Amino acid sequence: MNLSKYISINNYNFGEIISLFIKDFYIENNFTNILFVRTCTTGAWLDTLLLEKEDINRILYYTDKIKKPTTSHHSTTIVHSNKLENQLKSLNKTFDLICIDTWHEYQSSIYDLKILSSFLNESGTLISHDCYPWNKKVASPTYISDKWCGETYIAFVEFAYNNPNMYYSILNIDTGIGIISKKQFDFLSNTLNREKQKQLLFLYKNSKDYYTYFLENSKDIINEKSNI
Hints:
The protein is α/β, with parallel strands linked by helices. Helices cover about 35% and strands about 20% of the residues.
């Protein structure tokens, strides 16, 4: 897939770039079984994506910190976060493509990546939004009202470290498009020994703060792609 079409766009509003990328990725790879997962404060862009494909499974979860929503996309199932895994099991299927805009606190992010990745099929791909915070403020570990990315980027690196058999990249466009796949596309790589060493320093031993270390080493630790 030619990434230059997306990396040349500099637009951080409302998920337009990730929506375009996912639509093109879906068409190019002829995905059939698709799952969208969002919360009521993240991922509203998912409700307008691939509307022509009405058989997409759509889940919106809320938490003890987020009030249960009263409205959403008409085909969306609304569940509490602690029932997400049971809801997924009830679907009795695996997916070619899973798109997630998680609650961006670290614990929620790592939980979602672990649970959702277990529902990928043998060549499935998971795409996560908000994996490259563009400044330290939006990388806040707790909720802020303006384009919050939180610590999903930390959870993404940890998942890659613990699952080196899969393939990864973060596209440094929009607010960071994180890609996890069981299939090796030309822009993805698995976790090499050199990358694992830097990932370990990032996760557990770095003397700098997470965000600064991530910015300085993202090409090595998570195969970051950008126009910089």
